[in-house]
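By way of example, we now present a protein record of this kind:
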Amino acid sequence: MNSCRDRKVKIEVVGLQKSYLLGSLFIKALDDINIHAYEEEFVSVIGPSGCGKSTLFNVICGLQVPDRGNIYLNGTEISGKTGMVGYMLQKDLLLPWRKVIYNVILGLELSVNDRKKNIETAQELLPTFGLESFENAYPALLSGGMKQRAALLRTYLLGREVMLLDEPFGALDAITRRELQDWLLKVWDKFKKTILFVTHDVEEAAYLSDRIYVMTNRPGKIKGEIMVDLPRPRNRDVTGHVEFKNLTKNLLKLLEY
């Protein structure tokens, strides 16, 4: 990758605070969050359960409005605006009555009113996303990994420069999760989208990322920012490096204290 000085900031969160009412309880979810991602960068956010990672993504994508602070995309404020970034949740949210091809173009249909063109665009990408020959299958016939591939293709087809991926592999078995991590690296390397990625898994964060933000318990704050100084393109061999093992140890220590 180029040095930071050669790249522009693609997405930036400045001084973000967010609270909400839960029944009669006032919950402070996020407190003074400052993070950013450069163009073509893969950035992970890790932290304990309930620290506000998903709330952070909901604010970035405009589903929730911050109490204080700002969200910038390419230097332009987008706080409270939806449709500015792609957002993939942990659940695939595929519609069971729609075939794969019609599921993956669902978001695209909202902006491009040309079903034939949308289908052609999606079909070109089916092999890259491991879905060739499954365009006419219903979600019930897909494995968990294939459902996540379809959900990611649907997110990618929105054409946004920044993609938020909220624990996309969290519900998968260990073998499938490893396979999709490897596959995601190849897809990211090919398309070079800016990615913000939420995970609970420090090894997953270390394997995928260029930088990692570590959050505290609620109210979520940024406890640390870790550079991942591992070579790209990256494969499983890197997990045997001393640098990788030291990185995961440091991440665990940050999470524990």
User: Anything to note?
Assistant: The chain has a mean pLDDT of 92. The longest strand covers residues 9-22. Strands lie at 9-22, 25-38, 42-46, 68-73, 76-77, 86-88, 162-166, 194-198, 211-215, 222-227.
